[in-house]
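PROTEIN DESIGN WORKSHEET
SECTION A - STRUCTURE
LENGTH: 235
TOKENS:
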């Protein structure tokens, strides 16, 4: 089996801190430039006909950062949600979110739900924010929901298979990513989409996220089309 169509790109947006440090700027300035890169990548995805774009915006581990940085990231997110609604509507793109969303600050949660609701009917593309997201937490949350259904007698545990388990993940309607891009050179998954990335192609660039532009995006896409996806089988 060889399936090349690129419909879903997932991105670990790393390097905001290093970008800022190299310029003698505060870390938050790096995140602010990172938010600009988010705007660019949403537009580029639309141009390239990418149907789903999942961005790792805040992990379950990111709460460990100092309060100023966490608050700054939440403010940026709020600002982004406020200004991006119009852009999403204009481009017919819907917003979704994955993660333990109810643990986000109330203001952020409400703003998020509002944009999700208002863009729900848009059909040209889907932007997915991973927020307070952890890959292991997602699997644990799915296992909890599934076990409740087993306990309630809705499901026979013998009928649990991969397809059924997937339906308990945060966004079962979204196909697995075809390509995962990580910026700023680190070669790890950092608890991102552990289930969904099982067969995704990985692309790592040394470019810091705030510098990630059209040329980098197009290089990653070209690289994807040169790969040979075999899903463990032979050609
Ligand atoms: C990694 O940079 C990035 C994050 C922890 C969060 C991603 C946030 C943004 C791109 C900005 C805001 C997003 C939205 C959607 C408005 P880092 O600080 O870990 O970089 P470093 O490893 O170089 O320190």
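SECTION B - SEQUENCE
RESIDUE ASSIGNMENT:
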């Amino acid at each position: 089996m060889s399936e090349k169509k690129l419909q879903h790109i997932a991105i670990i947006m790393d390097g905001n801190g290093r970008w800022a440090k190299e310029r003698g700027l505060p870390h938050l300035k790096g995140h602010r430039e990172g938010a600009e890169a988010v705007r660019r990548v949403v537009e580029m995805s639309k141009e390239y006909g990418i149907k789903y774009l999942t961005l790792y915006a805040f992990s379950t581990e990111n709460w460990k950062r100092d309060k100023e940085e966490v608050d700054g990231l939440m403010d940026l997110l709020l600002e982004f949600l406020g200004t991006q609604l119009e852009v999403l509507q204009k481009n017919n793109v819907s917003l979704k979110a994955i993660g333990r969303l109810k643990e986000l600050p109330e203001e952020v949660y409400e703003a998020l739900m509002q944009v999700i609701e208002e863009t729900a009917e848009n059909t040209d593309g889907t932007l997915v924010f991973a927020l307070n997201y952890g890959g292991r937490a997602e699997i644990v949350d799915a296992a909890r929901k599934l076990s409740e259904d087993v306990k309630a007698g809705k499901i026979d545990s013998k009928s649990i298979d991969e397809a059924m388990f997937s339906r308990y993940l945060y966004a079962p309607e979204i196909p697995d990513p075809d390509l995962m891009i990580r910026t700023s050179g680190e070669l790890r998954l950092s608890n991102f989409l552990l289930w969904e990335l099982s067969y995704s192609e990985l692309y790592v660039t040394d470019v810091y996220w705030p510098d990630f532009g059209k040329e980098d995006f197009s290089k990653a896409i070209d690289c994807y089309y040169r790969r040979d996806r075999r899903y463990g089988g032979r050609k």
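SECTION C - NOTES
The pocket of farnesyl diphosphate is lined by residues 13-18, 31, 34-35, 38, 57-58, 62, 73, 76-77, 80, 184, 209 (CB under 6 Å).
The chain has a mean pLDDT of 96.
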